[in-house]
Amino acid sequence: EVAAAIDAKKTTLADADLDRRLMTEKIDVTLPSSPQADGYVHPISQTIDEIIAIFGEMGFTVAEGPDIEDDWHNFTALNIPPDHPARQEHDTFYLPGEHGERKVLRTHTSPVQIRSMMDQGAPIRIIAPGRVYRADYDQTHTPMFHQVEGLAIDRDISMANLKWVLEQFFTAFFGTEVKTRFRASHFPFTEPSAEVDIQCSWEGGTVKVGEGDDWLEVLGSGMVHPHVLRSAGIDPDEWQGFAFGIGIDRLAMLKYGIPDLRAFFDSDLRWLRHYGFSALEVPTLHGGV
Length: 289
Ligand code: PHE
What we know:
This protein is an alpha+beta fold. It has 9 helices and 13 strands. The chain has helices spanning 2-24, 43-57, 71-74, 85-89, 111-120, 159-174, 226-231, 248-256, 269-275, and strands spanning 40-41, 61-62, 68-70, 94-95, 103-105, 124-133, 144-154, 180-187, 190-201, 208-209, 214-224, 240-247, 277-278. The site of phenylalanine (PHE) has 10 residues, from β11 and β12.
């Protein structure tokens, strides 16, 4: 009797609950559907637009080169001769080419230096954002990633100009004054060479740029090597300049608080809805980056 009473009570409660839900959860099929988003700008595209806006104001134009490069532009013209150990360090993806000449997926944006100097000669002031490829995969490395190359050649360009340009860039990009640290380094295509760190703090487990007393490496740079100028048809006795290569993905992660590099390239629409940008906002220095 007790069990039957409990069952009966259960049924009445369940019925009452169902009635309540039918009353409150009505779907009005005559309502217009919720508006569909037009799509989102990927954080990498947004970051590239911001980089172009900032360097654009400093007189740099955008140059491009192919993702599938030849060995000469990617290595030899950049003072990396055959059998140079730097070729192994790059974990290059090779492709079959014509006439027994293999092609490479460019391992950095530096070949665009060569292409631009050969096309435009000196003086020149360009940036070259784009995809680069290395056979590498973990939490901080993906086989495809992004760099922006910078190149300024004129009669009296110095390391001081390089330092100023980079500090202007980071301060505009992060919207706060960012100290930089130059560390002596080596690249075959620059002499002298420096790796550049930006000031940051790791307090509380999250990185904050522009404060604290830790450093984060973000780019390689230096004065363009005379051999490189000569390869590209520019007389090193008349012209000199600086070049740099910044990792774009790392900058986007830092600015927009994105913890895992790999998520950039998973093509997950939920992720893009969360981290993406409105397609109608075009970054400019006046409008805000
Ligand atoms: N190409 C270098 C790299 O990918 C970066 C760099 C560019 C260094 C220009 C110096 C000058 O690591």
